[in-house]
Amino acid sequence: MRTNRFFQSFIAAALIVPALLPATYFGNPALSRLESDGVVLPASKWASLRIGYMSDWNYRQRYNEEFHIAGTPNPSSYAKFTTNAATLTLNVKNWLDLNGIVGSSQMQIDHDVYTKRQLVWGAGAKLIIFHTQSIYISLDYKYVSSLQKPIYLVSEGHAYNVVSSFKMETTEQQAALGIAYKIKMLSPYLCASYIYSKIDPKPRSVFVRHPTYDVTAESITSSVIGRRRWGMAFGATIVGGNKGSVTVESRFINQNALNVSGEIRF
């Protein structure tokens, strides 16, 4: 009984810390107008299609319990998340981008919780609200979601296997106001960002097995949200022949992350 109680206490402590949500990038505020020619089809005044690929490394983000009881501890945890995804963008009249993202992601919470790669998907839009010959201002919104399944939990060098159908439904909404400046083939940019991220355990309870004893324990989990919502991002885009681009972006405060993406206009 003593071992079982310790085991349950450890699992409860490990799982009330949140899973880091699958994140994506904001991108250059001027992307709707940076690529003006198509690789296959001639330039269109009405619509165009861009296909790309992105890798995102979210290496630090804080979360707390969504419903906190006053007077009780509410510890935060740090987590890491990697995402690789294909991107598809429909551009309308060089003003509006409609985005779709499909790929895979993997999570690590401190050195305690690990998941295998899971499907991640997202959708969003970017609208240029003002521009001159070299300055661009836009609004951006994205929604990202994934079902993360922990493989095992680690404590004192032991891996505790998850034996139930426990998953973590993660959702993230991102909004940004950005400004970009174009200098020939280079376009640096800066964004003020807002990120609301949440995780809901499904179901609320999870069963795990001790690695050396034939013992199974149950723990009850709760939903968590990101601790900081406001932040910033900056990056730069290199445009090649007005038909493709490569962008490097960093995010700070609400997330500490690095993103590399590239795309080609058809």
The secondary-structure element order is HHEEEEEEEEEEEEEEEEE
Q: Count all strands and give the number.
A: 17
Question: What is the count of DSSP helices, taking H or I runs of 4+ residues?
Answer: 2
- Contiguous low-pLDDT stretches (5 residues minimum) are 1-21
Strand content: over 45%
Helicity level: under 10%
Rg to the nearest angstrom? 21 Å
Arithmetic mean of pLDDT: 83
Q: Quick one: biggest sheet?
A: 17 strands, antiparallel
Principal-axes geometry comes out as elongated
Distance between the termini: 65 Å
Structural category is mainly beta
What does this entry show, briefly?
The protein is mainly β and 266 residues long. The chain has helices at residues 2-15, 31-34; strands spanning 47-60, 62-65, 77-92, 96-109, 113-115, 118-131, 135-148, 150-155, 158-162, 167-181, 186-202, 205-209, 216-220, 224-226, 230-240, 244-252, 256-265.
Walkthrough of the structure:
7% of the residues lie in helices and 62% in strands. The protein is mainly beta and 266 residues long. The protein has a 17-stranded antiparallel sheet that branches.
Features:
elongated; 266 residues; mainly beta; 17-stranded antiparallel sheet
What is this structure's SSE topology?
Blueprint (H helix, E strand, L loop, with lengths): L1 H14 L15 H4 L12 E14 L1 E4 L11 E16 L3 E14 L3 E3 L2 E14 L3 E14 L1 E6 L2 E5 L4 E15 L4 E17 L2 E5 L6 E5 L3 E3 L3 E11 L3 E9 L3 E10 L1
Antiparallel strand pairs: 1-3, 1-17, 2-3, 2-14, 3-4, 4-5, 4-6, 5-8, 6-7, 7-10, 8-9, 9-12, 10-11, 11-14, 11-15, 12-13, 15-16, 16-17
